[in-house]
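input
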Amino acid sequence: MSDSEKIVSLKNARHKTKETKKEDVQKTQEPVICSFCGRPNTQVAKMVQGPGVNICSECTMIAVQYLILEDKLPSGEAQKILDIFWSKIK
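output
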């Protein structure tokens, strides 16, 4: 998977088609940096770009895990997803 395929852009998502979004990502030559951990897209599994903010897949899963565990009782399905994700990252 190339670095440009690892970036999902949500910028102006309501106004662009899929083809236009892919063209924009492919034109991006410089690394996209996660706004939370500071890692570039070349060091993470996936990167989501939003308007003025980026988040990598690892930070997304940490946030999801925090929100699930905030309730102290993660559902069985949610825990399976978290376990699968973290096992593939290591």
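quick obs: The chain has a mean pLDDT of 77.
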